[in-house]
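ok trying again, last paste got cut off:
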Amino acid sequence: MGIEKDKPIAVPADTSRRVRPEILVVDDEYFNFEMLKATLSNEFSLSYADSGTSCLASAIANPPNAILLDVCMPGLDGYDTCRLLKNTPETENIPVVMVSGLESELEQKAGFDAGCDAYVVKPFSVKTLIEKIKALV
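nice, full thing came through this time. structure:
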């Protein structure tokens, strides 16, 4: 068998079909997910979980490229959810970006101590959030 020469290389004409990283948004307020979806859907494919428990189940069943995790949620808060994610073999390597209105250094330290890879304070710049996510995926 010889090597074929002069065979054309197929290049997709439509670059808008590029694969977008999958981001799991975890927030007890669906409105926040809708806002993120409106601003991030050009860059990422977004899915939604409304609690820490559903986040864990979803991340194990369909591992995303990254997780945007709200800190203040009833039941499992963001810190506990992050600790569980980082201590579960199926999810330990998924980057977690905590998103919170809690801006003190103590709160941010608690996020990093729980294992988050980035901490973004609300209100945030969409550009900054996209840059942080892209740096992790």
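cool. The first helix runs from residue 30 to 40. The chain has a mean pLDDT of 89.
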